Amino acid sequence: MKFVHNATDLPTKEEYDYIIIGGGTAGCPLATTLSSKFSVLLLERGSDPNKYPSVLNEQGLLNVFAAGDDGKNPFQRFVSEDGIENIRARVLGGGSMVNAGFYSRGHQEFFASAGVDWNMELVEKAYEWVEETVVSQPILNAWQSAFRSSLLEGGVIPDNGFDLRHLVGTKTGGSIFDNKGNRHGAVELLNKANPTNIKVATEATVQRILFSG
Ligand SMILES: Cc1cc2nc3c(=O)[nH]c(=O)nc-3n(C[C@H](O)[C@H](O)[C@H](O)COP(=O)(O)OP(=O)(O)OC[C@H]3O[C@@H](n4cnc5c(N)ncnc54)[C@H](O)[C@@H]3O)c2cc1C
């Protein structure tokens, strides 16, 4: 993507309709969508994921838990206020580049109780827009099939087969890993952006936001 630059290569002063902080799971599709009508700058503190081949495939998933934190790699280690060790992403594509790749649509109850007047037709279209780019139907391996069967035998029914919706019962959900084990993170949604309206700056840690007027 020619519109992805290291922050140091961008002009020090420029104006945009929207500046989005954080090129993660939410920031990438938001920037892409806004670029269809507006000028957008997306600021991401981490690097281009291609710099870290281990985040690009399923085999690299274990790195998330094993890798140390050198302050630059895609996994920032932190301890929550209640003392729980965890990681958060530090890479363009955000959590979708380091997570376990399970994909599911939201629960109906969420839409009913969120206090937002959703246009469910648009919500459906938005899901399809994401899914056509990043979601695959996984081929279950032996233990996954066995686990699936045991849920059904144990009475977790109905059997919903493969389904991207959040449903009661047993289902095979989507994965952002394809059947060759390649990860398809939110960063790929940037391919749908209007390239003349968007700039993405990597290694661009935002320190302060100044409001005036
Ligand atoms: C190990 C692990 C496994 C997971 N497994 C799953 C799963 O299988 N399925 C699932 O649905 N969810 C999973 N999740 C959760 C999911 O990945 C996150 O909920 C989701 O990615 C959050 O999206 P987000 O856009 O809110 O934040 P993020 O995707 O984390 O994006 C935030 C971005 O902002 C950047 N940023 C932060 N501060 C600054 C700053 N000051 N300046 C510039 N940029 C900044 C970060 O580098 C990051 O790229 C998992 C999470 C983890 C950690």
TrEMBL record:
Keywords: FAD, Flavoprotein. SUPFAM superfamilies: FAD/NAD(P)-binding domain. The keyword Manganese does not apply. This is (R)-mandelonitrile lyase 1-like. Its cofactor is FAD. InterPro entries: FAD/NAD-bd_sf (IPR036188), GMC_Oxidoreductase-Related (IPR051871), GMC_OxRdtase_N (IPR000172). Belongs to the GMC oxidoreductase family. Residues 89-112 form the Glucose-methanol-choline oxidoreductase N-terminal domain.
